[in-house]
Amino acid sequence: MTGQTRIQRRNRETILTAALAVFSQYGFRGATLDQIAKQAGLSKPNLLYYFPSKESIHVELLEGLLDTWLDPLREMNAGGEPVEEILAYVRRKLDLSRDYPQESRLFANEILQGAPRIAENLSTELKELVDEKAVVISGWADAGRIARVDPHHLIFSIWAMTQHYADFDVQVRAVLGPGHDPFAEAEQFLNTMFTKLLRPV
């Protein structure tokens, strides 16, 4: 939306921030415009001035989030040292889980519902990037620079082992108990695990 005033831009951001909190807690189906308006401190008619529907808010959040989610993989450098590049990707994904837990849960909820609003993005933008990096990883393996691994499943495992700390934060902290830093401990563990996995035989 172009030509917005400063107040209009601020209100849109307030609505999106409020919607993120509501969607990440209740999911798309459980969230209501009334909840989002209350969280934003705006009236429902005021909210509808900026966004015509709950779905329009949800789609805008997801489209912005997908870019954020893909950036760490985009940064994987084909010319770098392979193990270091993969471990750096693991660290960037952990950082996302630590710094953007609500966004992670929003994305997870969308996927669990069958990705009705971003299915096309998954089969185009996401798939193209993952396929591109899978070629890089396979090239490293072909050159004997890392162990031979299935590159797609390597990426899937990184997603699973990093996003878990955002999506299941309450469970992780309940099991570890007080006095633990889940993300620092996870980084140390994952670095060790992936280093051993990727070490050339």
UniProtKB/TrEMBL annotation:
The keyword Lipoprotein does not apply. Gene3D superfamilies: Homeodomain-like, Tetracycline Repressor, domain 2. Signal peptide: none annotated. Residues 32-51 bind DNA. Keywords: DNA-binding. The keyword DNA-binding applies. Pfam families: TetR_C_3, TetR_N. Residues 9-69 form the HTH tetR-type domain. PANTHER family: HTH-TYPE TRANSCRIPTIONAL REGULATOR RUTR. This is TetR family transcriptional regulator C-terminal domain-containing protein.
